[in-house]
Q: What sequence folds into this?
């Protein structure tokens, strides 16, 4: 009896081994099939006699799962179906992962040179290591036939390294201050136009027992938005940018003042209690429940205040936005925004189907530009003609403001190298938590930036 | 059967698959981690050999030492809580009424994934809506602690759910060991007039000493490499106040693209765990009845 039991065990374990081995060799076959497909396509002299038009597969990895981003997911599916109909010999194979997992996976596959043919990347600091490692291919040839002009001015720059563009942006976001008009009315406060007025609004709300501002600073970049705006309004668009690109210093008085203003706001009880331990989602729910009056976040949140049917109409109707107030005596102006491009599409340098992939990226970006605003509430990297689209007023207002923006300051943590960004984000938490002085805040940044040079 | 089992070639054949898997999936990555620790590498581009530079940098890295300190604190805390688990198990195993029900209650957290536990406790700790602060305000405490955003208490606020999470695991181990203690010894002691405390202290505990040793080692190792709850609940923040070695390693490698340095931290962590395990064994090993692990 016992003896018999051992036979399946041996069979099983050997089978397991063979399966493992088979997986390995399968990969190899796939890769070589891809290779021959490519050579067959570009070069008809290829020894492959049966080539009609070689079937090729584009591996495409994106980060909008059906569950968490159904609208995005659906548009992607539609665009792929379109593309496959236009190019019958091309199949697009999908891999869909959540944001964090996506980032991790991208890094892991890139270290073993197995990037998908097409994938999504973030701009600037995120993109640079991949470009330096020669993993992304330049896409300037895709932009040549006039496509370059379709993009909102400056967005492509965020994906460029040394004058070459390595990804095409799909999203562009600016950060307005959303506010609850009903709460403002009840408490008799008006939209603030200056920082001092903002403090007054905060005081009034606080005295009336309303949380003035929802802020989930566990995520840290949320607090960074407040700091960036104050830095922009006090120092103008250049103060922060030049500190980061090292033509200036973080110990610039204006940047220190911005940090001091943050702590002044904290002292005025501006932010929801326990903000440093709350995630952005948790803080947002305070705003969505009508417990907090203001919420500074990227325009990606617009659908929640316009089209999202899951949120009560009454609430959506009560939400408006204002531009971040000016600081009296500051160098910045009110039409300057903090924001930046979100994800963009890259083509892998090692792709076996580069030409098809480039065609796919081009098609995708164009279609996305046409559909994403109306269907998913995404502001694309390409320009949107607000007269042509049918959108809620709030949305149109943001798009118009975006078209009239005097400047868009790229999110600080995106501008910085990842190690400096980590320091910045940690210091943001300490600044809001009043564990450092504004001077120490500036000093630590300066040290990290110098070390990184 | 016995003939087959004593054939060395057969033994080799049977153990080979598992051995190969362990080699490829565990030992090779360990060696590679140590190797990457010698590199300046962003995890993406080309590697540059920098020798022991990364390991040397660890010495002056304040954030590393504070995360190491937090990990050691967690280890101490976990070992301390073993006393609590043991006490509970002693009570449960002493034929008390409803012991079965309580055993199940303690076991339930083990059925939840760490992420679910983290979500649950984040709600409990919520600064205004959380059960904890609601309770504290109703009993008249005006400014209850901001559990997860106050840098001075965040670490302990996280330790509590960790203790809660592992209670069932250790209680089951102790419970099983205590049930194996021969009844006759206890009865003989009772006849001699020993109190329950004396029985526990003089008879039960010495008899399960081996198991206790194992749990100490498990608790220490588990604490030093602890990651998940902290990652979900605070992400090591605010400003590193709840950072532990594993979460710091993760951040270095995957957030700041400092793969070489992250690997160095990982390798240090491994060495530290080996040393600590060795020390604990040294300190607790007695000549007789040693439990091997």
A:
């Amino acid at each position: 009896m016992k003896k018999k039991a051992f036979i399946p065990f041996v069979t099983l374990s050997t089978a397991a081994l063979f399966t493992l081995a088979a997986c390995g060799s399968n990969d190899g076959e796939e890769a070589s099939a891809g290779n021959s497909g490519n050579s067959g396509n570009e070069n008809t002299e290829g020894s492959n006699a049966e080539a009609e038009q070689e079937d090729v597969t584009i591996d495409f990895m994106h980060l909008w799962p059906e569950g968490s981003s159904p609208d995005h997911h659906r548009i992607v599916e539609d665009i792929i179906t379109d593309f496959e109909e236009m190019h019958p010999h091309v199949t697009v194979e999908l891999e869909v992962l959540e944001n964090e997992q996506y980032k991790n996976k991208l890094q892991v596959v890139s270290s073993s040179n197995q990037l998908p043919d097409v994938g999504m990347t973030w701009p600037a600091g995120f993109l640079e290591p991949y470009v330096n490692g020669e993993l992304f291919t330049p896409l300037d040839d895709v932009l040549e036939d006039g496509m370059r002009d379709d993009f909102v001015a400056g967005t492509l720059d965020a994906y460029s390294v040394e004058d070459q563009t390595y990804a095409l942006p799909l999203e562009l976001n600016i950060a307005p201050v959303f506010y609850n008009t009903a709460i403002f009315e009840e408490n008799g406060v008006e939209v603030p136009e200056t920082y001092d007025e903002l403090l007054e609004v905060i005081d009034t709300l606080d005295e009336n027992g309303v949380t003035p501002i929802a802020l989930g600073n566990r995520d840290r970049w949320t607090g960074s938005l407040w700091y960036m705006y104050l830095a922009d309004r006090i120092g103008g668009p250049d103060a922060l940018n030049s500190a980061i690109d090292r033509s200036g210093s973080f110990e610039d008085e204006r940047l220190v003042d911005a940090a001091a203003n943050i702590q002044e706001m904290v002292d005025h009880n501006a932010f929801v209690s326990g903000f440093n331990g709350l995630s952005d989602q948790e803080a947002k729910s305070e705003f969505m429940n009508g417990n907090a009056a203001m919420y500074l976040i990227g325009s990606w949140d617009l659908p929640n205040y316009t089209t999202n049917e899951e949120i009560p109409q009454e609430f959506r109707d009560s939400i408006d936005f204002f531009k971040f107030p000016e600081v009296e005596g500051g160098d910045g102006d009110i039409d300057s925004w903090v924001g930046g491009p979100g994800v963009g599409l890259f083509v892998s340098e090692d792709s076996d189907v580069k030409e098809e992939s480039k065609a796919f990226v081009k098609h995708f970006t164009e279609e996305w530009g046409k559909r994403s605003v109306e269907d998913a509430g995404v502001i694309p990297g390409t320009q949107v003609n607000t007269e042509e689209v049918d959108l809620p007023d709030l949305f149109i207002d943001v798009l118009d403001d975006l078209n009239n923006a005097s400047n868009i300051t790229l999110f600080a943590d995106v501008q910085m190298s990842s190690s400096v960004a980590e320091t910045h984000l940690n210091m943001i938490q300490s600044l809001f938590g009043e564990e450092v002085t504004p001077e120490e805040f500036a000093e630590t940044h300066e040290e990290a930036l110098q070390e990184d040079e | 059967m016995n003939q087959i089992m004593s054939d060395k070639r057969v033994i080799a054949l049977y153990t080979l698959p598992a051995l190969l898997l362990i080699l490829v999936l565990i030992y090779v990555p360990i060696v590679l981690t140590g190797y990457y620790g010698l590199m300046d590498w962003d995890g993406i581009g080309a590697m540059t050999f920098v020798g022991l530079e990364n390991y040397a940098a660890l010495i002056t890295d304040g954030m590393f030492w504070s995360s190491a300190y937090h990990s050691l604190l967690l280890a101490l805390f976990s070992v301390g809580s073993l006393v609590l688990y043991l006490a509970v198990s002693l009570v449960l195993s002493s034929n008390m009424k409803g012991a079965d029900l309580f055993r199940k209650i303690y076991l339930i957290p083990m059925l939840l994934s760490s992420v679910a536990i983290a979500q649950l406790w984040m709600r409990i700790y919520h600064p205004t809506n959380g059960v904890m602060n609601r309770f504290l305000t109703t009993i008249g405490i005006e400014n209850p602690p901001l559990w997860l955003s106050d840098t001075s208490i965040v670490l302990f606020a996280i330790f509590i759910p960790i203790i809660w999470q592992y209670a069932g695991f250790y209680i089951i181990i102790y419970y099983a060991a205590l049930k194996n203690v021969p009844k006759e010894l206890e009865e003989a002691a009772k006849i001699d007039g020993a109190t329950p405390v004396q029985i526990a202290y003089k008879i039960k505990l010495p008899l399960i000493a081996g198991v206790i040793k194992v749990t100490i080692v498990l608790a220490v190792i588990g604490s030093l490499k602890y990651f998940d709850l902290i990652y979900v609940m605070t992400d090591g923040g605010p400003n590193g106040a709840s950072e532990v070695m594993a979460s710091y390693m993760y951040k270095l490698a995957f957030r700041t693209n400092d793969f070489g340095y992250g690997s160095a931290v990982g390798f240090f962590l491994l060495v530290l765990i080996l040393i600590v395990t060795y020390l604990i064994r040294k300190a607790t090993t007695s000549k007789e009845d040693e439990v091997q692990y």
